[in-house]
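Ticket #4471: structure output looks truncated?

Reporter: J.K.
Steps to reproduce: submitted the chain below (217 residues) through the standard prediction queue, then opened the result file.
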Amino acid sequence: MARITLFTGGIQPLPESGRPTGMYKTRVDVPIALGPEGFAGDQQADRRVHGGPEKAVHLYPARHYARLAARFPEAATQLVPGALGENLSTPDLDEADVRIGELWQLGRAVLQVSQPRNPCWKIDERFGADGMAGFIAEHLLTGWYWRVVQPGHVSPGDTLDRLHAAPQAPTLREAQLLWQAHRPPLAELARLADTPGLARAWRDKIVQRLTWLKMSA
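Returned output as attached by the reporter:
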């Protein structure tokens, strides 16, 4: 069981470039509908890299904020749950606690772990902190995405509860470490690509890399 806080938001301009972002979220304190593409009223600015059925909900572990604040003290006051654009915040889980393809109950909805988040340059501008997105990626402080397997209403005070474990699948942290490796073992990379529940876009990238590694071996 994991305690959660809910966040949603619309599209707003970044402080310097004015480029649109859906990173600014506010806390939700009433029941809210969760459908195949996310929470009612939630928006993503760049649908090429955020949102859609396989990245419908973003969770960010609350425990990561202390580490980010220590590394980027100039942004410490802003680094609070919800600030990185997550829909779900929890102090009880991180990337080592969940496996690709696992099913979790949240209120009346059922979610499936699909892939890690890939942090982008907008994070640096959002917080006025050069290198924050790179630090998040390098140290695997990414959070992750869920697909919505069963839509339903979610209320503040609901918990995330594991419905179906995937013991043969890698944890998100294991998958990220393998992906970051300079020359990962080909068999392990192939197994990662074949993991049930893995988001198709990430699977395609893994397959492309696997093909390149085989050609260059």
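Triage note (M.O.): checked the attachment and the full token line is present. Helices lie at 64-71, 122-127, 132-138, 172-180, 186-193, 200-216.
Status: closed, working as intended.
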